[in-house]
Amino acid sequence: MLLAATALSTWVPTAASAAVSLPATKAELTALGKTHKTAWDLYKDFEKQANGGQRLKGEQLPDWSGTYTRDPPGLYFDIDQGRNPVPPAKLTPEYDKRFHDKLDRVKNKIEFDPLSNCAPPGHPRWLTEPFLREFVPTPGTTYLINEMVNDIRRIYTDGRGHVPEADRYPLYDGDSIGFWDGKRLVIHTNQLRDGQYQRSQPDYSDQVETVEIWEKVDDKHIVAHVWVYDPPSLVEPWYVKQQYTKLDDPQRELRIRYWDCRENQNNEVIQTDTGSSQFRDFTFDKATPTPPTPATSR
To answer: Which of 143, 127, 95 is nearest to 243 (CA)?
Structure first.
């Protein structure tokens, strides 16, 4: 389905205020997601509230400059999980069993993460990864950049729709389109691969879709409101709030550097027969390689 291209191309914003009304509490934001059957329905509702959305350029674009990191840090997809090993998501019976089987393996120090082979984390897991980040709004496209494995999400705000259904195939970061609502960026993402929300976190299927609203709330913080829809794994949409904090960099020394796993000869990781991970031919000396040690988890 295509966005309302005419509305997007003719709208000239006169103020930075947003038209989309967001509830104040997590319970209310969760309930908002449940009032829409699909992520696309929620996205289209936000678009309707914003009168088709806006296309920003020049000084109309928000200033998201700087280097950021996820805050608070940690490997939980939902920061409200706290120390509870089970996140506050309502999983279907199949995915609930898969998740608890995973927790049992972790207790026995058996866990394999595809990221050990430097595969991209994939979205929505992308939201939780550590390391440095940059967010770059431009006319027509916003780039959400994570240092990890050079992972860049491209959010198209030029009025295009999603890739036609017949041409879709699963991608790590999917296909993302969006619009501006004042200084807020509203995003819909589909065409995703299956994956996991994080290490020791539940899995999601290749039917997962998300709606996000990104906004800079003060000089140091950008917040993303996220609704995850995935009927095979979730009984109802999962709402989470992600926050990214701008790092102090008075000397302008921070850099997002190119990530290449081949730079480290000890970074080739294999999955063992027990399901754990192991370095292949681990050694600190090129001339005298040592045989692999017994399997351990990573």
So the answer is: 127
How confident is the model over 169-211, as pLDDT tens digits? 999 999 999 999 999 999 999 999 999 999 999 999 999 999 9
Q: Rounded distance, CA 271 to CA 273, Å?
A: 7
Contact 46, 213 (CB under 8 A): yes
The two structure tokens encoding residue 171? 């991608």
Q: Give dist(CA 94, CA 102) in Å, integer.
A: 13
User: What is this structure's pTM?
Assistant: 0.84
Specify the amino acid at residue 22: L
State the fold for domain 41-246: Lipocalin (2.40.128)
Instruction: Yes or no: say if 140 and 90 are a contact pair by the CB < 8 Å rule.
Output: no
Q: Rounded CA gap, 4 and 279, in Å?
A: 51
Q: Domain extents for the chain?
A: 41-246, 268-298
CB 50 within 8 A of CB 226: no
CA 257 to chain CA mean position, Å: 20
CA-nearest of 183, 145, 156 to 59 is 183
